C-alpha cells in the first residue's frame, strides 16, 4: 500500500496538456457507463462510480452532462473494454485498460508503445495475477483511528486504513466501494481526495535510474494513446 494517490492525481492534473486528455477519457468512460445501463447514477452502479472518480479530478459538469446526453440520445457509437498486459525493463509489469471502437488499431498502438520503449506485450493473465483489484477512497479532516471507528460503527469491512500526507486513505474490496463512501457521507463527509477502483501491485519494485527513465517513457507513451483509459504498474517511482 502507500502509493500516495493524492500525489499521483495532482501530478497528472497539473499539466495543461494532460488536463484535456484526462477530461476526454472521462467523457468516453461516462458515455459507455451511461449507455450500458440507465443514464441515471442512482440506478446505474457503474455510472455512479465513474462520476465519483470524475469529481476527484475536477472534471467539468459540461463534459459530464454532454457524455450522459449523448448516451440518452441513442448514439450508435460503441466501445469494447479490453485489457492488455505486458512487461517493461527489469521485471516491471504493466496492465493497460482500454475503451476502443477499433480493436486492431488499439492492439497495434499498445504493442508499439511497449516495443519502442524496451517493453513487450504478454498474454492474458501473464501480469494480472500479481495485482489486486482494490477500492481506494481518501479524505481529509479525519485521523486513521477516527475513520476506523466510523467504519466499524457502519459495519463496513476494509483491507487497510493509512495516513498518507494530510489524507487518510482507505483500501477495500471493490464491492465495498459504495459502502465505504456511504459510511462517510452519513457523517457529512462528501468530498474525497481520491475515489478509485484500481489495480494495486502486490509488490512494488525499484528500478535503477536508466531503467526508470525508459519505464516512464513507456508509461507516458501508453497513457498518451487515445484508447487507453488506465495504466497500472508495479514500479515505485518515488516522490
Automatic annotation (TrEMBL):
GO cellular component: cytosol
Source domain of life: Bacteria
Location of the protein in the cell: Cytoplasm
Keyword ATP-binding: no
Domain TACO1/YebC-like second and third as annotated: residue spans: 79-235
Family under the similarity heading: Belongs to the TACO1 family. YeeN subfamily.
Name of this chain's protein: Probable transcriptional regulatory protein E2636_01425
Organism: Paenisporosarcina antarctica
Amino acid at each position: 500500500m502507500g502509493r500516495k494517490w493524492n500525489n499521483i492525481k495532482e501530478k497528472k492534473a497539473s499539466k495543461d496538456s494532460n488536463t484535456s486528455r484526462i477530461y476526454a477519457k472521462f467523457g468516453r468512460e461516462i458515455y459507455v457507463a451511461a449507455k450500458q445501463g440507465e443514464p441515471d447514477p442512482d440506478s446505474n452502479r457503474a455510472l455512479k462510480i465513474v462520476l465519483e472518480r470524475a469529481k476527484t479530478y475536477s472534471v467539468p459538469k459540461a463534459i459530464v452532462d454532454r457524455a450522459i446526453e449523448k448516451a440518452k440520445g441513442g448514439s450508435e457509437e460503441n466501445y469494447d473494454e479490453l485489457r492488455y498486459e505486458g512487461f517493461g525493463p527489469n521485471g516491471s509489469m504493466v496492465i493497460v485498460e482500454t475503451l476502443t471502437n477499433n480493436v486492431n488499431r488499439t492492439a497495434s498502438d499498445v504493442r508499439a508503445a511497449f516495443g519502442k520503449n524496451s517493453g513487450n506485450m504478454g498474454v492474458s493473465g501473464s501480469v494480472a495475477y500479481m495485482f489486486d483489484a482494490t477500492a481506494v477512497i481518501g479524505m481529509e479532516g479525519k485521523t486513521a483511528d477516527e475513520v476506523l471507528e466510523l467504519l466499524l460503527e457502519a459495519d463496513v469491512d476494509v483491507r487497510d486504513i493509512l495516513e498518507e500526507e494530510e489524507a487518510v486513505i482507505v483500501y477495500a474490496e471493490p464491492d465495498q466501494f459504495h459502502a465505504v463512501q456511504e459510511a462517510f457521507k452519513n457523517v457529512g463527509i462528501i468530498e474525497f481526495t481520491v475515489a478509485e477502483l484500481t489495480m494495486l501491485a502486490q509488490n512494488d519494485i525499484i528500478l535503477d535510474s536508466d531503467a526508470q527513465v525508459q519505464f516512464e517513457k513507456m508509461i507516458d507513451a501508453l497513457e498518451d494513446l487515445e484508447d487507453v483509459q488506465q495504466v497500472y504498474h508495479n514500479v515505485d517511482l518515488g516522490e
